[in-house]
């Protein structure tokens, strides 16, 4: 089994929350001996476009981990960002059969975001990295 190489796409709009998610991602990848490349985009809505660009690029990635956070505010913008980014990611994931871990947090408030981002709590970044690695293994098993 060769060493896995993962592309991590981060939307660090909430930079401290993203940093905590990234800590979990890196810890999980390191535990499994995987390497990674990293790109940052302005916001969660840009993640699907960055993923599509990566798929068209010449570099090969075994899997993808997506991280970021959307916190509900006073307008319907939350719904657009959460729903449209999830729809586009799922569409790309299924169409291209991607081994993908979606660690984008869509939450009601900052306390929920922190509970999910902290490695010592729900560690959703680590969970997303492990999901991508498990999907790589499943793809190999089914191929």
List its traits.
52% helix, 4-stranded parallel beta sheet, 143 residues, alpha/beta, Rossmann fold
Explain this structure to me?
This protein has 143 residues and is of the alpha/beta class. The chain has a single domain, classed as Lumazine/riboflavin synthase (Rossmann fold, 3-Layer(aba) Sandwich). 52% of the residues lie in helices and 21% in strands. It is built from five helices and four strands. Helix 1 (15-31) runs parallel beside helix 4 (110-117). The model has no long low-confidence stretch (mean pLDDT 97).
First-last Cα distance: 14 Å
Mean pLDDT value: 97
Round the Cα radius of gyration to an integer and report it.
14 Å
Give me the secondary-structure category: alpha/beta
Which strand-content bin applies to the residues? 15-25%
Entry summary:
The protein is an alpha/beta fold. It is built from five helices and four strands. The relative contact order is 0.22.
List the helices and strands and how they pair.
Blueprint lengths: L4 E7 L3 H17 L3 E6 L6 H10 L6 E9 L5 H20 L3 E8 L2 H8 L6 H19 L1
Parallel strand pairs: 1-2, 1-3, 3-4
């Amino acid at each position: 089994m060769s060493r896995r190489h993962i592309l991590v796409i981060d939307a660090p709009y909430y930079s401290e929350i993203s940093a905590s998610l990234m800590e979990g991602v890196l810890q999980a990848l390191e535990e499994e001996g995987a390497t990674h490349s990293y790109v940052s985009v302005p916001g969660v809505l840009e993640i699907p476009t960055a993923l599509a660009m990566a798929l068209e690029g010449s570099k090969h990635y075994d899997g993808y981990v997506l991280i970021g956070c959307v916190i509900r505010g006073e307008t319907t913008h939350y719904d657009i960002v959460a729903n449209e980014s999830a729809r586009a990611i799922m569409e790309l994931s299924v169409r291209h059969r991607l081994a993908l871990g979606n660690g984008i947090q869509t939450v009601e408030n900052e306390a929920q975001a922190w509970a999910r981002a902290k490695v010592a709590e729900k560690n959703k970044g680590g969970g997303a990295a492990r999901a991508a690695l498990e999907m790589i293994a499943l793809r190999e098993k089914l191929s």
